[in-house]
Amino acid sequence: MNKRFRSLVFTSFGHFSNDSVFLVYPLLITYYTLIPGLNLVLLGSLAIVYQLIYGAMSTPIGMLTDRTGNEGMMIAIGIAVIGIGMAAFGASFAYASYRLGFIIAGVLLLGTGTAFYHPIGASVLKSSYKENAASMMGINGSMGSLGRSLMPIILVFLITALGASIALGIISAELLVAAAILYVGLMPFNRSVGKANKIRNGRVKKISANQPNKSAGIFKSGYAKVLAPLVAVIFIRAMFMTGTTTFVPEYLKAVTHSELLVGSILTISFVFAIFGQLAFGYLTSKKGGRYTIIMTSFVSAITFILFLYFSNMIVLSVIFYSIFIFVTFNGFAVILGYVNQLVPDKVANGSNAFTWGVGQIFGGAAGIGIMTLFLGFVGIGTAMWYMVIFAMLAILMLPLLYLNSGKRHKKGMSINVQS
Question: Are the CB atoms for 31 and 156 separated by under 8 Å?
Fold first, then answer.
């Protein structure tokens, strides 16, 4: 298999495996709340812990991968850790006496495991496809969206048929097998990066002083400053997106009074993210990430408001939530596609991880925290309306994206920062 095509095939499979667990914990919340002693505020607090672990681990993992270059193995490790986390969630249903401990272990493992894929997968595609990376990331991201859309209905049916512990055990086994496949499939993608010198054809070639190296990384080299305006916008947008998404299953259950219907609605809605990744990955490649982020931020806010307004009309709420998912869940192609337009290969993993970890994931943790705080005082429907404030704030912050150059930083170019 051609190495370039191989990178797309196996990173896409990795994305499918990684993102398939995206809605697992939010779905499990609907089952955990039926158990005495486990309330929504406690479970929401653990969702914050998950996001904090995810965000805190992303940048160190990305920078470690830049230093070692062992990208294939790192992706496989991440999927394996997620698989073990699913087993811990399964054990929480099987062993009532240790339930909370297993839930906490599952949250910690899930947060750690999901910190691996996105920055590293984006870096593999950037090194393979260069200027066409954003379009390829759209194709890749569509597989992640497929995983997100299929898992809710699969998990609900498995739990209904076999019970929660066996269902989660099956998901765990599937992810561990996936990790083994990825380890073999991505073995060729182990590259040495971030060195001060390169040896080519027996000669030592000095790297230009304006190129980041192992000791500089994204912070000392100045690339963190290039990315800071983007990170700020993504942070606020993620507060809105993740804060609401984490509790949407519970919100839908309050409206529909059916776990099966909740799983069906989530699966139908998240199917549209598959096409969103393709469409907005292509748009990012043609128009640039800044243009795409601005456009999707407006549409995302409008459609979520319409979803809430028509929540008692199931068909209309599904239509508007599907449009919301279509324009919102494309971060891999759009956000990381934009990052790859701003930074060179040598700091790709670290830059992707910094933007994704601090912006998308820490922002998401803050959003879940705010949402959980709201739930301590108001009902879930009112709390959802309050979260729209952050969607509006993200729109007001969009001019920050013009503080950086918006130009592509190709390998060997000096950093062009306008601030």
Answer: no
